[in-house]
Amino acid sequence: MIRIALVDDDTNFHIICSRYVREFFHANNRMHELRLYSSPEMVIYDLKEGRDSDVYFLDVEMPGMNGFELAEKIREHSPEACLIFLTSHTELAMEGRVEYDEIIYLYREKKYAVLVLQDRQVHVRKPLRVVFEELDSENFMFIERGFVVNIEHILRLADRDLTMRNGDVLPVGRTYLKTVKRMLLHFWKDRI
């Protein structure tokens, strides 16, 4: 049985979304339990009592605590839960999107790939290799087993250290050095 939590301060949305969830699970002949929450505090209370869910639909804008802040609390108690953000505001939906050229570099941190941007870091619950393949861009390259860089953000290569546009200095693995030099040369040759 799949446990689903719908967190939204709009009771009309509860009615609409509940109907879609019931129809989906009925059509697919699957058992489910749907919990409706009108505030983030109610979710946190249930988490502390051991009543977690498999899937959380979170309204982005709620009084007191927004959906992103609630997601952090949920992750502390239920790291495997699927989080889906809902909003009627397109500008908020775009906040979660990252453009390729914004990514300075990526690194591996346990089960996460961490995207380092100029103003923030974004954690993606996928292996670094998978995120690298999903980027599918010639501007990204491995420089070490746990690091991928965006060539556009490299300022300098000195010995085996790459200085990135944000000031971070990253080590280039010995086995990657020749490939890194070749790709940098190719990248800059095409732009000069």
What does this structure look like?
The chain has 192 residues and is of the alpha/beta class. It has two domains: 2-95, Response regulator (Rossmann fold, 3-Layer(aba) Sandwich); 100-189, Beta Barrel (OB fold (Dihydrolipoamide Acetyltransferase, E2P)), CATH 2.40.50. It contains six helices and twelve strands. It has helices spanning 11-27, 40-48, 67-77, 90-95, 128-135, 177-189, and strands spanning 2-7, 32-37, 55-59, 82-86, 103-109, 112-117, 121-124, 140-144, 147-150, 154-158, 161-164, 169-171. The chain has a five-stranded antiparallel beta sheet. A four-stranded parallel beta sheet has the order 2-1-3-4, sandwiched between helices. Helix 3 (67-77) links the parallel strand 3 (55-59) and strand 4 (82-86). Helix 2 (40-48) runs parallel beside helix 3. The chain starts with a strand and ends with a helix. 20% of the residues are buried. GO terms for molecular function: DNA binding; phosphorelay response regulator activity. It comes from Eisenbergiella porci. This is Stage 0 sporulation protein A homolog. The modification 4-aspartylphosphate is found at residue 59. Keywords: Phosphoprotein.
